[in-house]
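Structure, all two chains, one model.
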Amino acid sequence: MMDVFETQRAMRQMRKAAMQRGVVAVLDMGTHQATCLILRFDGGDLPTVDGVGPMAGQSQFRVIGAATTRARGMRHGEISAMQETERAIRTVVQAAQKMAQVRADHAIVCFSGANPRSYGVTGEIDVTGQEVSESDVAAVLGSCDTPDIGGHRTILHAQPVNFALDYRSGLSDPRGQIGNTLTTDMHLLAVDRAVVQNILHCVKRCDLELAGLASSAYAAGISAMVEDEQKLGAACIDMGAGTTGISIFLRGHMIFADTVRIGGAHVTQDISKGLGIPLDLAERIKTLHGGLEATGRDDREMIPLTGETGDWEHDRREISRSELIGIMRPRVEEILEDVHARLEAAGFDHLPSQKIVLTGGASQVPGLSALATRMLGQQVRLGRPLRIQGMPQAAAGPGFAATVGLCLFAAHPQDECWDFDIETHRYPARSLRRAVRWFRENW
Amino acid sequence: MRPLIHRRRDLNDPAPSRAAYRMTRLWLSPLFRRLVTAVMPAALIFGGAAAWVTQPAQIDMVKTWTGDILASVEARPEFQIRQMAVTGASPVLAEAIRARLSLEFPVSWFRLDPELLQASVAELDAVAQVQVSVELGGALSIAVREREPAVIWRRPFALEMLDATGHRIAYIDHRDGRPDLPLVTGTGADAAIPEALALIASAEPIQDRLRALTRRGERRWDIMLDRDQVIRLPETGAQQALERTLAIHAALDLLNRDVPVVDMRNPGRPTVRLGPGAMDYLRLTRSFEQGLASQ
């Protein structure tokens, strides 16, 4: 099982190199916008003023360059036109570099598509009453049985979420403890291999070294949820343009992730189709006038649908805001229904706390929280990403939750399965220990 | 999909071309940036300057240029020296100094090295001390202090005038030039001139009879008087020995007798050598005394 992680391991080495250099680019390849932040890591000089905590560990780095551009060649969070995506990445990386006046060689990338699917796997080894060492942890992770994810799929995240030592479960770090049987629960996130390969290729064509890869549902969850939500159990709904990502966190770890392949772009598309207007105008009236809860006043608020077809009647149409809401609401309801179905399937009902955090660009539509409360449950709130040092104000909205989460991911990566070295020195050590024990018992 | 047929770049496309992107990244890499902004201009400037300067024509030009400037500065009247003033020297010595320096006036201030001139003048025997100074009024002033002649030293082939320290001042042709100076002879006499001068001063009572002081074996003095009379003085304590001799002379009128040699070399036993007449007289006296005794 460890063999499939060679790419991931190489990326981890890249990340180390980037940390040594102190500059890393964070690249969020969304369906609607591509964002690049350039982070400078400088030694973690924490402020020592009273009352200022470690600031969720984000005082270590600083955003020195930020740029956003319209995404091109992306559909459902996947690359559909490689050349166009490459152009968008070049644009955004160049602009961020210009702002930072620093060249970024390493990029950490997140994307939302590729049909992520979660698997929970379990591994168990015998530690024979000895102290659990790091190699034992690696061994128990290596002993997890690989689920059949399919030949065209690859593993994006493999995070140990729980360790148990002799029926003592819920250990976050079993090292140094003594027991007989070490068990682990690991969360695997599998995605389509071709999508990942396309992204790898695209980043490589922009002369960047890939130093990490994350699912944007996971990244949005890190940044939009506060720590107690992550600990007690909550779901983060990252409503993007092409996809809606779902990630469920419990005890600080992601235990489930999924995506619904509908998003804000489909709402725009509905408006465009329903009203017979171009997509950019549809996007504009969606962001300016859109809503989900119609009131009596909305019948009187008229929205001009200007056009340039030359037909006077066609170009001078007006609709009321309630008509617009009438177009938007069914699509958002559909998204939320799908999300609800996915959460049901994941067993979200059985979690101790059913908190839901809505974030992402499409969550800014007015009236969403009321609608989501009706459809998903009472504990719904709208989430914005954490504030990080040096982030421009324009990039502080919920549309940048995944980007900010990716910064935190870059600063504090979760231990993944491939961070533990195994086999080579484990096997002889174990057999040697066995031989010593045999001697002790027989002499 | 973009059309495959080549067309002009879309001006509305904000994306940089691959080449522009790469150039921007290259420009942002610190090493390359330093190379272009600092190293390359410096190398170009220095290289160009070096290439230009090393052309022979340019070297000649620079040389003539600097030469002209130097010459024009040197030729300015403020820096010209037109005459030389020698003070404190006899006319003969002044002439010798002028001949030795052999300067052609006017000469530029920059072409003169006062220390070199001073060393050159100090090499002259007759010069005890010299101070060469250049005054910007346009005169070279040489202040000389001459050596005072104290004795004349007769050597086998020459007569030399020495000062009180024994340093040679000049060769002279004959003694008549300076009859007032005492005469010393003998090899190595110049090394003991102060002692000789002291002896001559002590020999004041027999001044009119003193002819010369002769250095013997480079260690002691003989005082030569007229009538070929010699006072041999010891190596050390010559002064006391001379005074003792003069005391004997005062008491016994020793030096006026027929005593060619007074040998004071052994201070415990002053010895005199009698002349032939005195010897005869002594013998006669003795035999007369013996005759008296024997009778």
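Chain B has a mean pLDDT of 84.
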